[in-house]
Amino acid sequence: MPDIIMHHYVERGSGFPLLLLHGNGEQCGYFEHQMEPFASHFHVLALDTRGHGQTPRGTAPFTIRQFADDLLAFMDRLGIEKAHLLGFSDGGNIAMVFALRHPERVERLILNGANLDARGVKIGVQLPIEVGYRIARLFARRSAKALRNAEMLGLMVNDPNVRPEELAHITCPTLVVAGDKDMIKNSHTRLIASAIPGAQLAILRGDHFIANRNPEAFNAAVLRFLCD
Asked: How far apart are CA 222 and CA 208, in angstroms?
């Protein structure tokens, strides 16, 4: 039997669906500065990923590909045949994997701070994640908190493992966004953009959390892309 979960989500506006996918350890409230501006143009739905925010963990594997399967189930349940996808960080990785698996369900794609694998993250950020993951795994059998930490950190160690050449199969219009001081290597962001046919690239002033910390520039770039 499939592990069906009911996503918590918030929605605003009307029109064509725009789905917002948050990052690791975040929840849909991350997009507090996007909901109203985007709702002027689209039916905006921001959801909590499995095991994040108010969405239950369930029993299925805690992986990016499982989250992509969950997204498909969410869209089917709400009768959303096709949508724009905007994913931040791990949400970008979910959106990337989803677009590869279900291209017919994606109208336009925005990847914000996504990465193909752990090598795309700056070493000063990734090294503590790797160490924390190994420590959490040691205690995971004895501590529910350690198990949760191991699962969360594991997403940033083991996922999404997408090869650059796979991105050639993404055919929808795509915008790749990152901060000029992002924790994702600039060269890696540019690799993603160059590997997706016709993708646009926007490097904005700020760090990994530009949607939250520099919303004016972020929202403007996204709306230009979606509304052209």
From this structure: 16
